[in-house]
Amino acid sequence: MRIVLVGPPGAGKGTQAAFLAKNLSIPHISTGDLFRANINRGTDLGKRAKAYMDAGDLVPDEVTIGMAEDRLDRPDASEGFLLDGFPRNEHQARALDAYLARHEIALDGVLDLEVPEDEVVKRIAGRRICRNDSAHVFHVEYKQPKTEGVCDECGGELYRRDDDAPDKVRNRLEIYHRETEPIIDYYKKQGLVVTISALGPVAEVTGRAMAALHAGADSEKSA
């Protein structure tokens, strides 16, 4: 299957992408991973991206598109992929359509993870991260440490990132609504969007997503 995953910050896209990609036996391709891989390998695109990032500027669409197309050209993506964070806006969506058309393939679905804004703010603003290892993540409500402010894994101090403050989260949501949300309407016109609630346990959301994607694929086959 060839899938685009969309949803606001805090919707659990990264978590769901990993589970879905494993269940569907397709590579999970995220924008963050693309940037890191190209920068670490010192590719021309990576050098260009790093220059913009070091200057505090957004990476231009053409650089992101170039990285995505280069990744999609790899053999492991020939039979399917799950895109997470790309396309980010309608210009990138049109570029992806053009790439797929050139290769005579098409998307099977666009999975839209829906979460109320208040829940997004609660999820992100409540996160606490270990200063010793950012992979150790807790939550003031959903995953409390045994001792408040102390990492269960290594005893490091838990803190809230500046970007996770409620006002910063709402600003990120505004950017999402302005730049990324319009691609949902763009893909709806192509009959590709399936929307599911991203509330509830991770396994339940994954099951919901798998059922929606397979139902969408079956309806396409019967059309």
TrEMBL record:
One of its GO terms (molecular function) is AMP kinase activity. It comes from Actinacidiphila yanglinensis. The gene is adk. Monomer. AMP binds at T31, R36, D57, L58, V59, G85, F86, P87, R88, Q92, R161, R172. CDD domains: ADK (cd01428). One of its GO terms (cellular component) is cytoplasm. This is Adenylate kinase. One of its GO terms (biological process) is AMP salvage. HAMAP family: Adenylate_kinase_Adk.
